[in-house]
Amino acid sequence: MNQIKKGVTVRFFSIEAKKSFVGNFVSIFIANKDAGASSRVINVRSKKHLIKLSEKLSVSTVAAYAVTVVRERNTWQAKATSDGKITGISTNQGIIGDPYFFLVVPGKKILLGFTSGPSGSLKSVGKTMLDQFNSNRADEIKLDLIPKDKEFSTLKELPEYSSLHFKINSASLSEISDDAPQLIKDLSLAPYIENNMQLSLDLQLNYAEDKTLTKENVIEIVNFLSEHEGCTVLKVKGVNKDGDRIHLDFGNAFVHYKTEINTRTKYIDESLSIGILKNALSEYLETS
Fold first, then answer.
1. Which terminus of the chain is more solvent-facing, meaning fewer CB atoms within 10 Å of its CB: N or C?
2. Number of neighbouring beta carbons within 10 Å of residue 119
């Protein structure tokens, strides 16, 4: 079988949590590994998640912990074989879904991750995974993409926006995560949009006349699309407090690591994923 060249994009998130989280994560990780309880299945919003503790690593003297998550994909409905038999899929022996590969760096309070599944769900799955190491659920854990430059902080500071422009392939909207912005959910369900169409939206914003998209909505959309591989263009125009027009381009505004691998299957195994994450972290530590 010929090898397939597959592109991989590793995303970097800052972890906002109480100071106690760092020590708790490490102790819980080690205790479960020592007890032979490296994996468990949990249910989150009607979807099963298998969380597997892989191994502890050292990258440039920095301790990092590899965790693999498989999130159930509910869209699988039937199995068809070459002899014409069509049957339902039995999940009694495990989970059928998409793998997510993470590297937790407690000392730096950062999370690295990538998936061969829907990229828009990486952040929510990462948060679900970290929540399992949170001994006090009242202390919420938050994840934010690590900005490469000042664009995102400037976006939050602008008193108003005048337009939002983005391009996205409709195929990447086939499965949208539960925490996606409502505008993106509406696009994914639109009956007039065909598969593999290049969608280009230019939304003119006027808060005095139209309250459909608030400032918080725009920030939420930019947050979501900036980490979505299907989005190729993402720009916002606005006016600062001095009345000057500002143009922000989020096409390359956040820290990421890109590489290509050769594989004979769609599945990326754990050992290969750990190598990718180690290289991503090493490059980040060298440049930060």
1. N
2. 18
Rounded distance between C-alpha atoms, residue 197 and residue 85, angstroms: 33
Strand, coil or helix: 67? strand
What does the DSSP 8-state code read for residue 254?
Answer: B
Give the model's pLDDT for residue 120.
66
- Each residue's pLDDT tens digit, 10-68: 999 999 998 888 888 999 999 999 988 899 888 887 788 999 999 999 999 999 999 99
- Classify residue 208 as left (phi > 0), alpha (psi -120 to 50) or beta: alpha
Q: Do residues 113 and 13 make contact, with C-beta atoms less than 8 angstroms apart?
A: yes
Structure tokens belonging to residue 129 = 């995974």
Does 5 score more than 60 pLDDT? yes
Q: Which residue has the tokens 């337009």?
A: 163
Which residue reads 């949990």 in tokens? 42
Spatial separation of the C-alpha atoms in residues 56 and 65, rounded to whole Å: 5
Q: Quote the CA–CA distance of 183 and 174 in Å, as a whole number.
A: 14
The DSSP call for residue 61 is T
Say how far apart CA 220 and CA 145 lie, in whole Å.
12
The beta-carbon contacts of 272-276 under 8 Å, at least 24 apart in sequence, are 273/66, 273/68, 273/99, 273/101, 273/114, 274/54, 274/55, 274/57, 274/66, 274/101, 274/103, 276/8, 276/10, 276/101, 276/114
Terminal-to-terminal C-alpha distance of the chain:
41
Q: At what angle do helices 215-226 and 182-189 cross, to 10 degrees?
A: 60
What does R_g of the chain's alpha carbons equal in angstroms?
A: 20
